[in-house]
Design goal:
The chain is 70% helix and 3% strand. It is mainly alpha-helical. The chain has one domain.
């Protein structure tokens, strides 16, 4: 069984190359080079859920872990929407290519037939 410290260090590990910097009035977030995978989000979710089982957590730690659970769940949902969007985008591009090719074929046939007349 892992200890609270193991889960906390797992959760705190940053996947971005640069740290986000925040003050009391503003935050500057640095985007990661790649989106975390759904598996990574599930690992974070599981780690936070297991950490909540630790007895005698203070209110701040409980709130932080619950926030991680909520954001991990939301990330998984948004990631699925993004993948769906990308698939739709690819289908539209493919359909546009087919329509474009059909138009070009009609133009070429018109030019060939038009020259022959």
């Amino acid at each position: 069984m892992h200890s609270q410290k193991d889960y906390s260090s797992r959760i705190r590990s940053s996947r971005t190359e640069k740290k986000n910097s925040c003050s009391t009035t503003t935050c500057e977030f640095v985007l990661p080079n790649e989106l975390p995978s759904v598996e990574e989000a599930l690992e974070d979710l599981a780690a936070a859920m297991n950490a909540l089982k630790t007895p005698e957590l203070n209110k701040t730690e409980i709130m932080r872990l619950r926030t991680l659970i909520q954001t991990s769940s939301l990330y998984q949902k948004r990631f699925a929407e993004y993948v769906n969007y990308r698939k739709t985008e690819q289908r539209l591009i493919a359909a546009g290519d087919l329509a474009c090719n059909a138009r070009l074929n009609r133009i070429m046939i018109y030019q060939v037939v038009g020259r022959g007349s």
